[in-house]
Design goal:
Blueprint (H helix, E strand, L loop, with lengths): L2 H21 L5 H17 L14 E4 L5 H10 L6 H5 L29 H20 L11 E6 H5 L1 H13 L4 E7 L2 E2 L2 E2 L8 H8 L2 E5 L5 H13 L5 E6 L22 H10 L12 H31 L1 H10 L5 H5 L12 E2 H15 L5 E3 L3 H4 L8 E2 L8 E3 L4 H14 L5 E5 L3 H14 L4 E5 L17 H6 L5 E3 L4 H13 L5 E4 L4 E2 L14 E4 L8 E5 L3 H14 L4 E5 L3 H4 L4 H7 L7 E8 L4 H4 L4 E5 L8 H7 L4 H14 L1
Parallel strand pairs: 1-2, 2-3, 3-7, 6-7, 9-11, 9-12, 10-11, 12-13, 13-15, 14-15, 18-19, 18-20, 20-21
Antiparallel strand pairs: 4-5, 8-16, 17-19
Helix pairs in contact: 1-2, 1-3, 1-10, 1-11, 2-3, 2-9, 5-7, 5-16, 7-16, 11-12, 14-19, 16-17, 20-25
Length: about 675
């Protein structure tokens, strides 16, 4: 290795250590140990263009060990992605472009928000699946317009987390040959040696998953690292797993190979010692030799040339296959929201009682014919979730053109994979499972919300209406959990029109995920339901009075119950309004004027009805109102018996309103 190359590797180490030292916070261990991997991969084996970070056919890189963000920021700075030295100096500071963990959409060149260990591995699998599917959709002989790799770098923590095993098991089954995982094997975790809790043979595990496994003994040997990456690329039938044996905190004598290098600044004295050990030529902090910048600029030009070649290929492709070019545009364009809003078939009423999971399934298959880039599936529950796209084929090894994904019983990985598919671009994805298992999805739903990814979650069997399966399968607190997340629209529709509104919102969303919480039990079509459901809450059955005596607010299967209770009360001379609240999140975004029109403040007699925990309803019913909700877990019995047992009857709702009216 030449002196310039050695200094180019060490530039990553020193910049990372310096920004962490200045911030007095961060993780220098990974950047110092993995700098040769980063240099070799980004400089010699990845197709990427700093001048166009969104180039469609770029190779993707995910830093699954997101705590090592200082390494990624060093790369982005050195390759010319627009991160200035001032940005580097502002590491972990307010409003900087260099936050503590990489954040998608915040820093140019960051492909995914990572932090929770292993999440990046799952998202990498999703990106590789998207690449395989789009390649099958569009490539023609001599025109590989979709042809790129997905790289993910992570360490022992990423492999300890169960999400990586779920995701890798599926990746191996699918034979994703363009997925290359690089394992930073430094044998150190926060508490000390990995021998404390992690002694399995990782290579045998990965081999069992169906990966090609490659070992690099010396993490400072760029030539060996490069040979391993090229060997990984040669195996087109299996994903590859490269173990690189590194030393955490390499170059700092007092920290190298020790747990203390992981998550704290080196200290000024140790930083200077590292510079001496690494023979770093600059004494001034945040100073990089000109020849190092020149070296990175030369490597960056290869990416510009690679994109120029692809642009020529794609131009010729469009000329030869104009229909495919038009289809490409459709895949990469937003949904025509106005056309869908006015599509009579999409909004057609269903005149018979039906479960909203069934109504959702019908809508999925309407959208399936409209949107050729829908790509999704279920965690082994498609027959129950009604998520199968009829006639769309099954995505699998040897048939990547299929659009129905079989995730297997892997809810956590499924939700990470959905993030990766969406991050890749060109596809609209949805995933499905039982609502109670949203507990497994939640960490990755949270990342989708943070990243602003319009993933759709089809969550069926929404309440104690699950019935005989009992408390383990009957969601109680999950609505409150999802509603507590910022930037997600949680829909619990009451009938066909509201289910259409939920899907319309999901499929036209640009920056917000959507959860569709759907019933197993049949729902009666409501005469008063309408596209007003798109506003999140609306009057579904009004009082005859200008100012109603009271208001019943309900969601999902309980809206029809509220209307029945309204009729009972009307016979007694008590004239109340029924408000359907399919999506609190969207209702809260409406104007104050609209919210006052639906829920006038002067009407303090309010009852909320929902077969879940009451948490979150206080802001709507106030101190003078009441709730008909679940106080504990459910039970195993037929659904009708459970609703009666737990008070979800028209008589109990009416009685609750009587008591509230008497107190107001």
């Amino acid at each position: 290795m030449s002196n310039v190359e050695k200094n180019s590797v060490n530039a990553i180490r020193i910049l990372a250590a310096e920004m962490i030292q200045k911030a007095k916070s961060g993780h220098p261990g990974l950047p110092m140990g993995c700098a040769p991997i980063a240099y070799e991969l980004w400089g010699r084996h990845m197709n990427h263009n700093a001048k166009n970070p969104k180039w469609a056919n770029r190779d993707r890189f995910i830093l699954s060990g997101g705590h090592g963000s200082a390494m990624l920021y060093s790369l982005l700075h050195l390759f010319g992605y627009g991160l200035t030295m001032e940005d580097i100096k502002n590491f972990r500071q307010m409003d900087s472009l260099t936050p503590g963990h990489p954040e998608f959409g915040h820093t140019i060149g960051v492909e995914a928000t990572t932090g929770p260990l292993g999440a990046g591995m799952g998202m990498a699998v999703g990106m590789a699946m998207a690449e395989a599917h789009l390649a099958a959709q569009f490539n023609k002989p001599g025109f590989p317009v979709v042809d790129h790799y997905t790289f993910a770098l992570g360490g022992d923590g990423c492999l300890m987390e169960g999400i990586s095993s779920e995701a890798f098991s599926l990746a191996g089954t699918l034979g994703l040959g363009k997925l290359i995982i690089i394992y930073d094997s430094n044998r150190i975790s926060i508490e000390g040696s990995t021998d404390l809790a992690f002694t399995e043979d990782v290579m045998k595990r990965m081999e069992a998953f169906g990966f090609q496994t490659i070992d690099v003994e010396d993490g400072n040997d760029c030539e060996a690292i490069g040979a391993a990456i090229e060997a990984a690329k040669q195996d087109t039938t299996r994903p590859s797993f490269i173990r690189v044996r590194t030393e955490i905190g390499y170059g700092c004598p007092a920290k190298q190979g020790k747990a203390s290098a992981h998550g704290e600044p080196l200290g000024e004295e140790n930083l200077q010692a590292a510079k001496e050990t690494l023979q770093w030529p600059e004494k001034e902090a945040f100073k990089v030799p000109a020849e190092v910048y020149d070296n990175y600029q030369q490597m960056a030009k290869k990416g510009e040339e690679a994109e120029a070649e692809w642009n020529k290929l794609f131009s010729d492709y469009c000329a030869k296959f104009p229909e495919e070019a038009d289809r490409w545009k459709k895949f990469h364009a937003p949904v025509d929201a106005e056309a869908l809003l006015n599509d009579a078939d999409f909004w057609a009423r269903n005149d018979k009682p039906a479960a909203s999971r069934v109504l959702s399934g019908n809508l999925i298959n309407k959208l399936n014919t409209m949107l050729p880039n829908m790509f999704g599936g279920s965690a082994d529950l498609a027959p129950s979730n009604k998520t199968e796209m009829k006639g769309a084929g099954e995505f699998g090894k040897g048939n990547y053109i299929g659009r129905n994904i079989h995730f297997g019983v892997r809810e956590l990985a499924m939700s990470a994979i959905a993030n990766g598919i969406t991050l890749h671009g060109g596809l609209r994805t949805f995933v499905g499972t039982f609502f109670v298992f949203s507990d497994y999805l939640k960490p990755m739903i949270r990342l989708a919300s943070i990243m602003g990814l319009p993933v759709t979650y089809v969550l069926t069997h929404d309440s104690i209406g699950v019935g005989e399966d009992g408390p383990t399968h009957e969601p109680i607190e999950q609505l409150a959990m999802l509603r507590s997340l910022p930037n997600i629209n949680v829909f619990r529709p009451a009938d066909d029109i509201e289910t259409a509104a939920a899907w319309y919102t999901a499929i036209t969303s640009k920056n917000t995920p959507t959860a569709l919480v759907l019933t197993r039990q049949n729902l009666t079509p409501l005469s008063g339901s309408s596209k007003e459901a798109l506003k999140g809450g609306y009057v579904v059955s009004d009082s005859s009075k200008e100012v109603p005596d009271g208001i019943i607010i309900a969601t999902g299967s309980e809206v029809a119950l509220a209307v029945e209770a309204q009729a009972l009360l009307k016979n007694e001379g008590k004239d109340v309004r029924v408000v359907s609240m399919p999506c609190m999140d969207i209702f809260e975004q409406q104007s104050e004027e609209y919210k006052e029109k639906v829920l006038p403040k002067k009407v303090r007699a309010r009852v909320a009805v929902e077969a879940g925990k009451e948490f979150g309803w206080g802001s709507y019913v106030g101190l003078d109102g009441a709730v008909v909700c679940m106080k504990g877990f459910g039970a195993s019995a037929p659904a009708a018996q459970l609703f009666e047992k737990f008070g979800f009857t028209k008589e109990n709702v009416a009685e609750t309103m009587r008591k509230v009216l008497a107190q107001n």
